[in-house]
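User: Here's a structure from my thesis project, written as structure tokens. My advisor, Dr. K., wants to see whether a designed sequence matches the one we expressed. Can you design one independently, without my sequence as a hint?
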């Protein structure tokens, strides 16, 4: 959200993000078979491209002339995102997490508010603290 906040701070309109036209399809959101979402955050897309293709079991995409460099993937982003949407909708979140982790892909699960409040990392970092309420209780 940093770019959104920066725009707001200098009085510019908050940019609209269209996931279908993401310049870097490896930095985008995708839905899984069990209707969960995850955010891929592979900013150095060329570095991660081979591992990602292996993770999604599509080694043919790695050297596909439409997608084999970041610049070319950007030119064909809508086509690639349609392909990835179909692939990533074929398995549930747990299955994709195993495959993405095993292939060194950078991603994060989009959590519900209830999941966030129970997230072990959020708890370990003391994101949520109990305070005394003025009317009573915590």
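Assistant: Designed independently from the structure alone:
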């Amino acid at each position: 959200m940093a770019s959104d906040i920066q725009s707001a701070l200098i009085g510019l309109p908050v940019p609209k993000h269209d996931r279908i036209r993401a310049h870097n399809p490896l930095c985008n959101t995708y839905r899984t078979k069990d209707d969960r979402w995850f955010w891929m955050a592979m900013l150095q897309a060329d570095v991660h491209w081979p591992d990602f293709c292996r993770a999604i079991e599509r080694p043919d995409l790695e050297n596909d002339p439409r997608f084999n460099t970041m610049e070319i993937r950007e030119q064909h982003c809508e086509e690639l995102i349609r392909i990835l949407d179909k692939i990533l909708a074929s398995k549930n979140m747990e299955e994709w997490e195993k495959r993405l982790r095993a292939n060194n892909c950078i991603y994060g699960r989009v959590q519900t508010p209830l999941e966030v409040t129970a997230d072990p990392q959020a708890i370990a970092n003391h994101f949520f603290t109990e305070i005394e309420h003025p009317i009573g209780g915590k």
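When you compare it with your expressed construct, this may help: The domain at 21-112 is CATH 3.30.1540.10 (formyl-coa transferase, domain 3).
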